[in-house]
Amino acid sequence: MQSKSDLSTEKKRAQKIFSILRNEYPDPKPALNYKTPFQLLIATILSAQCTDARVNIVTKDLFKKYKTPQDYIIVPSEELEKDIHSTGFYKQKAKSIKQCCQEIIEKHKGKVPAGFDALYNLSGVGRKTASVVAGNAFGIPSIAVDTHVKRLSNRLGFIETEDTEKIEMRLKELLPEKDWVNTSHWLMAHGRKICIARKPKCLQCVLGANLCPSFSAIG
Fold first, then answer.
1. CA-CA distance, 176 to 43, in Å (whole number)?
2. How far apart are CA 13 and CA 165, in angstroms?
3. Closest CA relative to residue 181, chosen from 20, 26, 10, 28
4. Residues annotated as part of the active site
5. For 50, how many CA atoms within 13 A lie in the half-sphere containing its CB?
């Protein structure tokens, strides 16, 4: 267990890092396109093992065709699978979307629930999806851990684990609640632009060797 003094030191380092990232990415927002909480929910389910850019291409037509939970329920599975095919894992995603929509109608009167726990309890909705919708659609303090957030949390030395829930809890421990939603956006933006998976652009990074233990002058 980390001592209080060590935790205090790490909080100060984390807050300095995110102060820099806040200035670097001053307009944080989801990469997924949506207009309603329901659209964000569907888009986030589709984003599993798929790029946000691809999901946005698919949902441009999908959201014109399907407007309510009922629309997704009544369409034949084969047709929905065809519509979302390019996002990958389309059979499981179609099944999850249909089950989720059924529960929204039966348990929540056709409305996407605003609470994290209620979202998390929907079929096909994990902690990341629940956090994305809770934070961005309803303003509930939450941190969504995707592949970028996981990678950067480890590289920046906040934690050493692949367990996304532990990463989420660690970031919540280090950062003020008011920054939780944007924390995900800042890390995702930095992960896409600079701290990429295969070869991070350390020499272009605003954080540098003083704040990042994974900094490399090579490349």
1. 28
2. 21
3. 28
4. 128, 146
5. 23
Task: Evaluate if residue 216 carries a pLDDT over 90.
Answer: no
Token pair for 111: 């409305």
Enter the pTM of the model.
Answer: 0.92
Residues 32 and 38: beta-carbon distance below 8 Å:
no
Q: Sign of the CA dihedral 65, 51, 40, 84?
A: positive
Q: Which CATH number fits domain 37-138: 3.40.50.80, 1.10.340.30, 3.40.50.720, 1.40.20.10?
A: 1.10.340.30
Buried b (16+ CB within 10 A) or exposed e, 132-167: bbbbbbbebbbbbbbebbbbbbebbebbeeeebeeb
The owner of tokens 């490349």 is: 219
* Complete DSSP assignment for 176-215: -GGGHHHHHHHHHHHHHHTS-SSS--GGG-SSHHHH-TT-
**pLDDT exceeds cutoff 90 at 78:** yes
Backbone angles phi, psi at 212, to 5 degrees: -115, 115
CATH of 4-24+144-211, one of 3.40.50.720, 1.10.1670.10, 2.60.40.10, 1.10.3720.10: 1.10.1670.10
